[in-house]
Amino acid sequence: MSIVRPFAGQIAAFCTYLETERNVSPHTLSAYRRDLEQLAAFAAKERGDSVSAGEVDHLLLRRYLAQLGKTAKKSSIGRKLAAVRTFFRFLLRRGEIDKNPAELTATPKREQRLPFHLDIDQATALMEAPTADEKYVLRDRAVLELLYSSGLRVSELTGLDIGDIDLAGGMVRVMGKGGKERIVPVGSRATLAVREYLAQRGEPAGSGALFLNTRGQRINRRSVARIVDAHVLRVAAFKHISPHTLRHTFATHMLEGGADLRSIQELLGHASLSTTQKYTHVGIDRLMEVYDKAHPKAKNPA
Questions:
Q1: Which residue among 177, 218, 226, 281 is the active-site one?
Q2: Is 222 a known active-site residue?
Q3: Among 5, 85, 244, 278, which one carries the catalytic annotation?
Q4: Is the pTM of this model over 0.70?
Q5: pLDDT bucket at 207, cuts 50 / 70 / 90
Q6: Which pLDDT score is estimated for 109?
Q7: What is the mean pLDDT of residues 88-114?
Q8: How far, in Å, CA of 200 to CA of 192, rounded?
Q9: 231 an active-site residue?
Q10: Catalytic residue among 64, 136, 197, 279
Q11: How far apart are alpha carbons 39 and 83 in whole angstroms?
């Protein structure tokens, strides 16, 4: 077995591996580091400051999860446990531990929460919320239209360069999670919105970013959240939403419009179909309509 390093060094080595070999996003990397540092702090409290990951056994891990269960949601605990499992598998391959204490630890069953989405009227109202007397109306409208039209993650939208979008072909090239590239269609309204925005702002020298903030720099996640918040306030009757709500809305409307799950999976850039299946919460009226049309025994005999 190789030399055992303190917990902090093991976490640092693991994060370097994620960044250089797994090519995870900065957001994912930060989440992994935060989850593992939380475990390390608990282990230090239990076993002393010089503790290493090799001293974490399944009993300590169970106590850690029990403590998390007092305040954290099951979905959050499940994510943290997944990070811990991956971390220990990494150490096992490197010979720094003899077994993975998280391997036999059961993942808490997640609450079956359906993602909130807008109906078609609400989505339309939000797209039309930016008004002509606002300085950044064309940018805001293009941001909202593209999020809803193509189901992009916020990180994907903020990472877009002008050359990534083909307005003539109605397509956008997106760099998704794990550095995976995909091509996504762009609807006609979103295409028009982006054309009008680019015609207004032009192409500043030295900047390839598609969307710019008020300082002429690439827009960030907080800016997108502020744009959505500002215009949601004008559309009465529904609660605060996040930019990710528009991704949920895109997927739900695609499914209700007849798209199959495999196609939606490709458009969203999900690695697993199980991730996409949460969008099967179409309305009961729609389900009954499909059932009546498709099932041979659905109709009453004449």
A1: 177
A2: no
A3: 244
A4: no
A5: low
A6: 63
A7: 78
A8: 12
A9: no
A10: 279
A11: 10
Residue with the two structure tokens 């002509």? 132
Which tens digits make up the pLDDT trace of 168-193?
Answer: 999 999 998 878 889 999 999 999 99
CB 178 within 8 A of CB 23: yes
Instruction: Based on the residue annotation, tell me whether 291 is a catalytic residue of this protein.
Output: no
Q: Is 37 in contact with 11 (CB distance < 8 Å)?
A: yes
User: What span, in angstroms and rounded, lies between the C-alpha atoms of 234 and 87?
Assistant: 45
CA distances from 177 to 181, 210, 215, 262 (A): 9, 19, 28, 18
Q: Give the model's pLDDT for residue 194.
A: 94
Cα distances (angstroms) measured from residue 209 to each of 141, 149, 169, 186: 17, 19, 20, 18
Look up 117 and say whether it is catalytic.
no
Q: Is 109 a catalytic residue?
A: no
Active site residue 281: no
CA atoms of 74 and 80, how far apart (whole Å): 10
Predicted local distance difference test score (pLDDT) of residue 299: 61
Tell me how crowded residue 220 is: count the other CB atoms within 10 A of its CB: 14
Rg (CA), the chain: 23
Instruction: Given the residues 117, 153, 231, 253, select the one marked as catalytic.
Output: 153
